[in-house]
Amino acid sequence: MEKEILLLAKQEQHPFLTGLFASFQTEHHVCLAMDLAAGGDLTKVIDHPEFNYKAAIFYSSCIVLGLEFLHEHNVIHR
């Protein structure tokens, strides 16, 4: 987890990853202070009546590019 946190902190300019401002850990939780995702979560986007095949391709491509970047830096996202 520490490696992922450090990578995200360094790479806040990547277009498909949110920036990380701070992190801390309690006995039971790891907390991350990250950029606000103003558009909401992906479920909200997918549930929108106008979500179509082209939108699915676009969002899938964004996810793949973000994961590819993480994997290139030996980070596995769960």
Automatic annotation (TrEMBL):
Q: Which PANTHER family match?
A: SERINE/THREONINE-PROTEIN KINASE, SERINE_THREONINE-PROTEIN KINASE N1-LIKE
Name of the protein in its database record:
non-specific serine/threonine protein kinase
* UniProt GO MF annotations: ATP binding; protein serine/threonine kinase activity
Question: Catalysed reaction per UniProt?
Answer: L-threonyl-[protein] + ATP = O-phospho-L-threonyl-[protein] + ADP + H(+); L-seryl-[protein] + ATP = O-phospho-L-seryl-[protein] + ADP + H(+)
Q: Which domain of life does this protein belong to?
A: Eukaryota
Provide the species name. Xenopus laevis
Its ancestry begins with: Eukaryota, Metazoa, Chordata, Craniata, Vertebrata
Look up the EC number in the record and give it: 2.7.11.1
Annotated ranges, domain Protein kinase:
1-78
Keywords, sorted A to Z:
ATP-binding, Kinase, Nucleotide-binding, Serine/threonine-protein kinase, Transferase
Q: Identify the Gene3D superfamilies for this entry.
A: Phosphorylase Kinase, domain 1 (3.30.200.20), Transferase(Phosphotransferase) domain 1 (1.10.510.10)
The gene that this protein is the product of is LOC121394088
Q: Which InterPro entries match?
A: Kinase-like_dom_sf, Prot_kinase_dom, Ser_Thr_kinase_AGC
- Per the UniProt record, one Pfam family is Pkinase
Enumerate the Gene Ontology biological process terms. Answer: intracellular signal transduction
